[in-house]
């Protein structure tokens, strides 16, 4: 089973990565903007299914590959840290824009495929989830249950954010400040990943 410290690190990692803007979160917010909160709720199941498939496939592949290349997990942590640092810098420089409300709403299939191909899946499997989650079923079940429990409220928040934008309730929101705050969180997280990989 997972230790208390491993559970805490897993929870923090899941929260930080899931909450940051990306293709899936943008689609969720856009759906909330276009079709409202209630009609967008089924998309959460599509996101969860996409991540479960992606994380499981990547995790089992990496668990097998680590036997042949023992240095692979450390390399992945460094690469993930660099990728997140890149995302932090990119997010600082460019505001995340939601698609126009007149565009067609994303369906379940679109959101599932976008999540399945989202680089966050590899990040979760190779860096955030402990390696034992892909070799022992109880650890896998616990990690996935925690993931699902954290994903649902975060997805709801992104949909609600889009719906609030659509209703005009967030006129006070400064997207640049919001994005820069998120980029700082990402930057700190990337440093912690690099530190963990090198020590």
TrEMBL record:
UniProt main location, coarse: membrane
Q: Where in the cell is it found?
A: Cell membrane
Keywords from the UniProt entry = Cell membrane, Membrane, Transmembrane, Transmembrane helix
How does this protein sit in the membrane?
Multi-pass membrane protein
Q: Which residues cross the membrane?
A: 6-31, 43-63, 69-89, 110-133, 139-161, 181-198
Q: Does Membrane appear among the keywords?
A: yes
From the record, what ranges are coiled-coil?
A: none
Q: Name one Pfam family in it.
A: LysE
Q: State what protein this is by name.
A: Multidrug transporter MatE
State the organism named in the record. Paraburkholderia caffeinilytica
